[in-house]
Amino acid sequence: MKPTAALSEFRFYYGCTALNFTGTLGRRLSEEPLERLDTPKRLSHWLLEAQVLSAAAPVTAKGLRDAIALREAIAHIARSCVDEEKPPERAVAIVNRFAAPPPVSLKLTAGGTVKRSGTPPLGAALSTIARDAIELFAGERRTLIRACAMDDCGGFYIDDSRGKRRRWCSMERCGNRAKAETYRERWLAGI
Ligand SMILES: [Zn+2]
């Protein structure tokens, strides 16, 4: 069995910052989802790895709860897009509330890099994520939002493949898992 740390690696293949954020809850449809934001520090790391902020933000337990509330509101709206239904009002209100404060600001440094910062850092970061979600849900890409076909994954991604037939959040992970399972089933059935 792989150690938990390896299972907790962050993933950034869902197509945009807002959906990458929803991917911090792994195995979304299983009875035991994998919470990758299990401590305030992990959220701080995610914001760095996702390039939302350039420096580690101080995150309190309440800040983590806020972030998870935003994440799940984004996931609810993504689900409504997949189901071609109206977005749930409560989730919309939550996303709008987090999008209201000023987002992260960008500065070009003398070294030719970008510095992403905000005040307070976490509030600005969550605003940036919420605004990314709004752009996604209000734009053309909303029709390209899919839920991964792997039984327990439930990861939301943007299908920007040419034929629009992408079935997995990640071919390398869920796609290969599904292929291995099909192979195993066939082998057991003697096909
Ligand atoms: Zn998946």
Tell me what the structure shows:
With 191 residues, the chain is mainly α. The protein has one domain (4-189): Jann2411-like domain (Jann2411-like fold, Orthogonal Bundle), CATH 1.10.3300. The chain is built from seven helices and six strands, in the order ααββαααββαββα. Strands 1-2 form a two-stranded antiparallel sheet. β3 (105-108) and β4 form a beta hairpin. α4 packs parallel to α6 (121-138) and α5 packs across α6. The chain is globular, with a radius of gyration of 18 Å. The two termini are 29 Å apart. The structure holds zinc ion. Zinc ion binds at residues 148, 150, 153, 155, 168-169, 174.
The CATH fourth-level homologous superfamily: Jann2411-like domain
The DSSP helix count reads 7
- Describe the biggest sheet? 2 strands, antiparallel
Strand order of the largest sheet: 1-2
Bound chemical compounds: zinc ion
Approximate strand percentage: 5-15%
Find the structural class using helix and strand composition: mainly alpha
List the helices and strands and how they pair.
Elements: H1 4-7, H2 17-22, E1 25-26, E2 34-35, H3 40-49, H4 61-82, H5 89-99, E3 105-108, E4 114-117, H6 121-138, E5 145-147, E6 156-158, H7 171-189
Antiparallel strand pairs: 1-2, 3-4, 5-6
Helix pairs in contact: 4-5, 4-6, 5-6
This protein binds zinc ion.
Zinc ion (ZN) binds at residues 148, 150, 153, 155, 168-169, 174.
Name a few traits of the molecule.
single chain; 191 residues; mainly alpha; Jann2411-like fold; two-stranded antiparallel ribbon; two-stranded antiparallel sheet; 7 helices; 6 strands; 47% helix; 9% strand; globular; disordered N terminus; binds zinc ion
